[in-house]
Amino acid sequence: MRKKGFALIIDELEEGLVAVAAPIREHDGRVVGAISVSGPSTRLTQKDLIKIGDMIIDEIATLQANHDGKIGAA
């Protein structure tokens, strides 16, 4: 999923734990934060995680657009 801009974790850190995360980048490409969602694998399927990952990417784009690409500390 790295091509889509987010990472998936499925039972890698702990059995039964899944997560999706995407970086928030400054206008110059530096990572200044991240958004992640995690939960039990019994409730979040890989399909759910991909859908959530796409939503995270959309929200990050909105955040960057609303801040003229300047997100990091002043």
From TrEMBL:
Q: Which PANTHER family match?
A: HELIX-TURN-HELIX TRANSCRIPTIONAL REGULATOR, ICLR FAMILY (PTHR30136), HTH-TYPE TRANSCRIPTIONAL REGULATOR RV1719 (PTHR30136:SF35)
**What's the protein called, per UniProt?**
Unannotated protein
Give GO terms: molecular function aspect only. Answer: DNA binding; DNA-binding transcription factor activity
Q: Which organism is it from?
A: freshwater metagenome
User: Which Pfam families has this protein been placed in?
Assistant: IclR_C (PF01614)
Q: One of this protein's GO BP terms?
A: negative regulation of DNA-templated transcription
The IclR-ED domain is annotated at 1-70
User: Taxonomy-wise, where does this protein's organism fall, top ranks first?
Assistant: unclassified sequences, metagenomes, ecological metagenomes
Tell me which Gene3D superfamilies the record gives: 3.30.450.40
